[in-house]
Amino acid sequence: MSVLVTGGAGYIGSHCCVTFLEAGHDVVVLDNLSNSSAESLTRVAELTGRSVHFEQCDIRDRAHVETILRKHSCESVVHFAGLKAVGESVEDPLRYYENNVGGTVQLLSAMQACNVKTIIFSSSATVYGEPQSLPLREDHPTAPLNPYGESKLMVEQILKDLKTSDPEWRIAILRYFNPTGAHASGLIGEDPRGVPNNLMPFISQVASGRREVLSIFGDDYPTEDGTGVRDYIHVVDLVEGHLKAHEALIKPSEQLQANTSECLTVNLGTGTGYSVQEMVRAFERASNRAVATQIAPRRAGDSAEVYASTQKASDVLDWTAGRGLQDMCHDTWNWVCKNPKGYDDSAE
Ligand code: NAD
Ligand code: UDP
User: Which tens digits make up the pLDDT trace of 158-175?
Assistant: First the structure.
């Protein structure tokens, strides 16, 4: 049985391919390579000893997606394809809605036409907006603070409406907290283009000497050391959560079957928050390098503290994240040392 992984050449998607291949699934990757390199898939094949069928395609091209679903007899979809830069989404919201929302509608229409009705969707903790209570439970109100978050919430709504219209759909909505780390082999990892927006890639580029100094966005938050607190989760734990969700959709337990009228909406986090300062110190220990920092103003739209309730993931998926902060830092550093310029040797 083939699983179609949209966005499978990207950071999380490539790790997902490894986990699904190792679990015995056939994997077909659909990606337009707008934010990734096909080299990641060569590495996935090297790691697993199994081939990945790659189709260069845009999810907005419904006819092409249909052809791919039929050609490979796909039975389920793990949907990572999308744009993810918050700042960019504020500057160019139409591009985000067109790609993330419009693209997903085309993908779902193609799936419906091919009678493929099982999908796992990459949502984000950003749908919650400013936390009113912590840890964030799945029933916390949603109130995204930017077009990127809105695009995720819109897709969640579309999926819920689809499930209501046709209960044959099996849908998991996974809300990620802060994915980080890399495969322990150092063969695949996060390869951001340009200046990284996220904390961990930025820290690692300072440690490796590619950038001079990390700006810490605010040291006057009501947290232990004044810097922002987030729930960082190792990317391999995250994709293992997808495998569990996939199993739950394909072979629902009695508990899930009792609730088949709804999408399965679950947080994927560790439940533990770390501050920016703690992340810097942990990375310094793992890399044995100094990370220069400077205090900068708060970044617009940032919350003081965000971390997940992991109860539902544990109850419904029988999944908890096992890797700790040292693994996240160590594996990131291993990836960066082995691939100082990411996948592209010729990159600046
Ligand atoms: P990524 O950019 O590395 O991967 C996304 C992939 O999708 C890329 O390979 C890109 O080329 C592809 N893509 C984008 N638009 C496409 C389109 N229209 N058609 C086909 N392919 C397309 O990002 P990632 O970090 O691996 O994130 C994967 C998913 O998880 C995204 O949907 C993202 O919004 C979501 N997510 C990521 C994070 C995070 O911090 N990384 C957090 C929460 C949610
Ligand atoms: N952050 C920072 N400097 C950076 C990037 C991020 O201080 O260069 C902080 C940010 O303010 C937040 C945390 O690191 O408190 C995580 O930010 P990231 O962008 O990685 O994730 P998100 O904001 O989406 O949770």
Answer: 999 999 999 999 999 999
